[in-house]
Amino acid sequence: MNFEIFxxxxxxxxxxxxxxFNLSESGVHPLKLSEILTIEEQKEILDLELYYGCTxxxxxxxxxxxxxxxxxxxxxNILITSGSAEANFLSILTQLNYGDEIIYMVPNYxxxxxxxxxxGIKVNYLPLRQELNWQWNIDDLKKMVTSKTKMIVICxxxxxxxxxxxxxxxxxxxxxxxxxxxxxxxxxxxxxxELNGVECRSFAGATNRSIVNGGLSKAYSLPxxxxxxxxxxxxxxxxxxxxxxxxVISIAFLSDWISCRILEKNRRKKILRRTKxxxxxxxxxxxxxxxxxxxxxxxxxxxxxxxxxxLNDPILSEDFVFSLRDKxxxxxTAGKWHGLEGYIRIGYGSPEDYVKSGLRRIKDFLSEK
Length: 369
Ligand SMILES: Cc1ncc(COP(=O)(O)O)c(C=O)c1O
Known about the structure:
Elements: H1 7-15, E1 21-22, H2 33-36, H3 39-46, H4 59-66, E2 78-82, H5 83-95, E3 101-106, H6 111-118, E4 122-127, H7 138-144, E5 149-155, H8 167-180, E6 183-187, E7 210-215, E8 227-231, H9 234-247, H10 253-262, H11 265-290, E9 296-298, E10 306-311, H12 317-328, E11 330-331, E12 333-334, E13 343-347, H13 352-367
Parallel strand pairs: 1-11, 3-4, 3-5, 5-6, 6-7
Antiparallel strand pairs: 2-8, 7-8, 9-10, 10-13, 12-13
Helix pairs in contact: 4-10, 5-6, 5-9, 11-13
The site of pyridoxal-5'-phosphate has 13 residues, from helix 5.
């Protein structure tokens, strides 16, 4: 089978550890275990016997995850996965077949688009509109639904724009999905990273055919734990769990143990508070910096550590990103890799000084062009 290259991840994998300034990340600078576990817990970890654990996630962890969603979501609606990347993989492979059609939000992370196309699923791209503050136009959505549509695929909060779906659009998606009996697949890995500190609405439980994928890599600043989850109706969870027997069998025992503890209500809130404060502080830095950068136009994000900027010069996004990388050792992501040419994404989740130094290099690059 020929799989499309996942350009975004491939470029990050190849260069993120080689450049001086990696501003291609979309999450907040990672936490250390010493910052999130008590001294007793740190000692306890050393004495744990490293079992496989529960292959669908321990009941304790699934309970913690269920607490983040509405009352309709219980342990039986949750499968713990190796990152939200595995959750997305399982959702597509269990729910879609060769020849199916999906409506897909762009710009996006594109994992689901590349994977679906590789499997012979037709991806109908529905763009968010910048003039609507990166929202879907409801009429565009209504027109795109046909008798062949099987699923509406969303990324909310959105990567790469950092926008959050407005209520009117959210309600329209739910009503169309109910009316036409469509699946909703909502990648919500950035939920919890809202700049105003208010967790956005989740599609979990919104219809009896809603799947929500999330995880600890972004808002919770713990990508190295590789913890994600998929949420949906019980029969879907059973299918996804069976497929998970083939992908990773079980997530890492230690990651389950740690997540179970740090998702306890007060610790979870504390981590999200840190995220909010960090994002708001760094957003000011990038906003100040962007004031005298006529080559780029910015829209203020509502969530996540990312700013999606329009290139005002006629240059391809990939050429811009490669040239910046080679001349100044700064890595960004190209709009092309997100499904929208003419833009670049700048990640500002790293420590303040690091972000400032990276931005300084971008400015130098632009002034030398
Ligand atoms: C929208 C989206 N979904 C999923 C992922 C995968 O994240 P992880 O597997 O670390 O949870 C990413 C990573 O950048 C992402 O941006």
